[in-house]
Amino acid sequence: MASKSDIKFLNAPKIGRNEKKYCRFKKHKINYVDYKDEQFLMRFLNEQGKILPRRLTGNSLKFQRRVSQAIKRARHIALLPYVTDLLK
Fold first, then answer.
1. What is 24-76's CATH superfamily?
2. Is residue 33 within 8 Å of residue 66, measured between CB atoms?
C-alpha cells in the first residue's frame, strides 16, 4: 500500500481553491512565442516532455496553439527532447 509521501502529482492538487486561471501572454502583452527560448518553453512541458493542456496552463486557445507550434519547432532542431524521464 502506498503511503501519502509516495504519491506524486504533476501539479499540486487544488482542493478547495478556486483561483481564476489567466493567459500569461495576454496579461504581459506578449505577441510572439520564440521557439529558440527553451527555458521559457520548459514551463509548458511536464516531466516526460509532453505538452501541458490549456486547462492546466491557463493559456488562451490562440497562444496555446502558438506554444505547441514553438515546442514542436524546438524539438525538430533538437533544443527540446521529444521524450524523456525526469525532464525537470
1. Ribosomal protein S18 (4.10.640.10)
2. yes
| Domain assignments of the chain as residue spans, ordered by start | 24-76
Which long-range contacts (C-beta less than 8 Å, at least 24 apart) are formed by 4-11? 10/46, 10/47, 10/56, 11/56
Mean pLDDT calculated for residue range 47-69? 93
Instruction: Report residue 13's pLDDT band, with 50, 70 and 90 as the boundaries.
Output: low
pTM of the complete model beyond 0.85: no
Would you tell me how many other CB atoms lie within 10 Å of the CB of residue 63? 19
Q: Is 33 exposed, middle or buried (0-12, 13-18, 19+ CB in 10 A)?
A: buried
